[in-house]
Amino acid sequence: MDKIFDKLKNIFKENGYHLYMIGSTSRDYLLGNKINDYDLVSDATPDEVKKFLDVEMTYAKYGTTKYYVDGNKIDIITLREEGKYFDHRHPSYIKFVKDINIDYRRRDFTINAIYIDEDYKVIDPTLRGVKDLENKVLTFIGDPKTRIEEDPLRILRARRFIKEYNLKVDDNTKYVLENNNDLLKYINKDKIKEEENKYKSISR
């Protein structure tokens, strides 16, 4: 159990919404690690969340709000569907949804699409996220080449996850990660630096 998640899930439930752990939060929970980064998703839109939480709305149009509790920064993101990518970074549209089975399709890796609900029930829509985490394997959701062309920053995210969790990749994924670095020219330099700093901070 996690006291911060418990506190927030009860607030969302009282207001008629669901809240889930996702990303690094669910991974750390399943691995028994201390949770330092809180990534949560909900069926509540940013405007709905704003009615009962004092959240930061800077990126609300993308479905992202930030909340601070007990000195921790919490990212709360609305479940969403995304359109095709035309600029190697941003989807053509974002549509807020209620269904995890739609939301997970936009995510990059199976280990990044493990949802944990209010009762700490694990929901694994790819049917292999938990298995990949246990077996230390990095697997893209969908075709690796396509997912990297959508957002080349995923190359750096993949490298970080491989190092952080000591993951293996298959030959095709390895080839795609090693032979598409030219696409990083489409990514904001600050975003690249942010990922590189995260990579350097990993104590492995």
Which band does the percent of strand residues land in? Answer: 15-25%
Summed up, the helix count is: 9
Q: Distance between the terminal alpha carbons, to the nearest Å?
A: 27 Å
Spatial order of strands in the largest sheet? 1-2-4-3
Q: Shape, please?
A: globular
CATH domain class name of the largest domain: Alpha Beta
Global mean pLDDT:
95
Brief synopsis:
This protein has 204 residues and is α+β, with helices and mostly antiparallel strands.
Would you spell out the secondary-structure blueprint of this structure?
Elements: H1 3-14, E1 19-21, H2 23-31, E2 38-42, H3 46-50, E3 64-69, E4 72-78, E5 80-82, E6 94-96, H4 100-103, E7 115-116, E8 122-123, H5 129-135, H6 144-150, H7 153-165, H8 171-178, H9 189-201
Parallel strand pairs: 2-4
Antiparallel strand pairs: 1-2, 3-4, 5-6, 7-8
Helix pairs in contact: 7-9
Protein traits:
204 residues; alpha+beta; Beta Polymerase, domain 2; Hydrophobic Seed Protein; 4-stranded mixed beta sheet; two-stranded antiparallel ribbon; 9 helices; 15% strand
Report on the architecture of this protein.
The chain is an alpha+beta fold and 204 residues long. It has 2 domains: 1-133, Beta Polymerase, domain 2 (2-Layer Sandwich); 136-204, Hydrophobic Seed Protein (Orthogonal Bundle), CATH 1.10.110. It has 9 helices and 8 strands. The chain has helices at 3-14, 23-31, 46-50, 100-103, 129-135, 144-150, 153-165, 171-178, 189-201, and strands at residues 19-21, 38-42, 64-69, 72-78, 80-82, 94-96, 115-116, 122-123. The strands form 3 sheets. Strands 1-2-4-3 form a 4-stranded mixed sheet. A two-stranded antiparallel ribbon has the order 5-6. It has a two-stranded antiparallel ribbon with strand order 7-8. Strand 3 and strand 4 (72-78) form a beta hairpin. The longest helix has 13 residues, at 153-165. It starts with a helix and ends with a helix. 29% of the residues are buried. The model has no long low-confidence stretch (mean pLDDT 95).
